[in-house]
Every structure is written in structure tokens, then in C-alpha cells.
Hints:
The complex is a heterodimer of chains A (about 70) and B (about 210). With about 70 residues, chain A is mostly beta strands. Helices cover about 10% and strands about 35% of the residues of chain A. Chain A has one helix at about 25-30; strands at about 5-10, 15-20, 40, 45, 60-65. In chain A, strands 2-1-5-3-4 form a 5-stranded mixed β-sheet, with no helix packed on it. Chain A is globular, with a radius of gyration of 12 Å. In chain B, helix 3 runs parallel beside helix 4 (about 75-90). The longest helix of chain B is centred in the last third of the chain and has 22 residues, at about 190-210. The two termini of chain B are about 25 Å apart.
Amino acid sequence: MGNQENISFAVNGLQAICRKGLTLEDYLVGAELEPHKVLVEINGQILRAEAFGTYELNAGDQVEIIHFVGGG
Amino acid sequence: MPTPLQAGLSRYWSPEQLSRLAAVRVGVAGAGGLGSNCAMLLVRSGVRAFTLADFDRVEASNLNRQFYFSGDIGQSKVEALGRNLRLIDAELELRLLERRLAAEDLPALYADCPVVVEALDRAEYKAMFCNAMLRAGKFLVSASGLGGIGGLSEQSGRPAMRARRLGPNFVCVGDFSTESNAANPPLAPRVVQAAAMQADLVLDYILNHSAR
């Protein structure tokens, strides 16, 4: 308790908090977003889907997530 | 001799604008409610070269919103779409791909399309397509959330459609929440609204933002 550092970042313009070292994939799963249905931008750049499991969120990251819904 | 559409468009576009529109091949993935209508709107606006892909055939349940007619039922969507588009302009340059799209094939299939429209139906296909096309350096216009009715009425609780940009080369339109399903079926007004937003973004990119 208390020895784990938390960081603050933004998802779709809203503040979010997680423990340091959390990967984007961990975040998506925790937020009940399906990694195979999203497109993610971090700090202005699209993050490749292959990098979801290795990208560790940083304090101040500006994350934009589109979670696609079906229909065309 | 210009086609009637080309002659008519010269009232609205300059020769330079017409030649810019004619010089770009637009890729469209999916020829359903989004893709068939987006292609139709782009043809009417002066785009003349397309690569159109869909594995499906026209069904009666498509006629409520897609750019097909009762005589097209049972036919390949891309074949029927090509024929219907040529009723607007007989001299289009169309590459028709009657096939499913796999991520590894996409860069080659759309190699000569600097602009690509994501018009697929399932969420995971949309994400797969967008991730693959952005890696290939395309300008990509996608859509998410277009089921049901009532996006313009405050009582509906449904968000209005808008456009979201991610990165320098990607725009997605839609309300971002209303999946097409039994409760919110895909109906012409909002499906065509999304397709029209996609077409407008493509035109704006070709005429105002692509390299000359």
C-alpha cells in the first residue's frame, strides 16, 4: 500500500489515473474496451495495434481512443 | 467529348479542380450503405477513378439504404455498383474487387489509392482495416455509429454525428456509439448522412490538402 506510483493522463479529453508501468492494452482491458476494435492515438500519433501490449502509459499522455461499433 | 456529368460539373468546378478530382483514385472498402452511397456522391462530385471491394451480393434488405435497385438483387455488389455509378458518368475508371479483404493484402490492393474510405460493417474489420491502411500512409476516412434515427433531436438522447481526427491522416465520422442492431437498425437517413460526411472529407482532402 502506498508504494505504488500513480500517473495522470487524458483519455478522449478526460483525466484518467493509473499505476506507473500500465500498458495501453492493460488500460483498454480494464476500461472494458476490446483491443481488436479500437484505433488509438497517443500525443498526436497513431499507435500501431502491435504496440498496445508494450506501450507503457506516461504521465501527461494525451490518449484518443475510437472504439468502433458495427454498421456500414 | 465530355460526358454529360463532366459538362455539368464545369458549371461548379474550375478546369483545375476538375483535373485534380480526375487525377486521384479513391479506394472504397465495402459496398454497403456507406461505401455505395459514398462512391455515388464522389462520382457526382467529379471523382472518376475508384477501387471498390466487397465480397457480398445485393439482397432485398439492402434496398432500404444502399445505392442498388430491385433488379440488382442477387448480383455481386461491386458489379452492380459499377453499373449504377456508370449511369451517372459512363467513363469512370473502376477496379472492382469481388473478395474479402485480409490485412496482408490491403497495401497491394490499394497501392495506387492515396485516399481510402473505410465502409465495412463489423467493428473488428473497421479497426483492422484502419490500422493497416494508416501504416501504409493513406489518408483514411472511416465511420462508426450510424444506426437508428433521431440524432438531431434532443429527446432521443442519441449523440449528433461529428468528425473526429486522430493523427495527421485519419478522420472518423458518426456518433461513435450507436451500433447497428435490432434496436437501432441501419436506416437510410443516418447511414447516408455518414456516407455524405465521408465523401465531403474526401473531396476536401483532394482539393485542399493533398500534395499538388
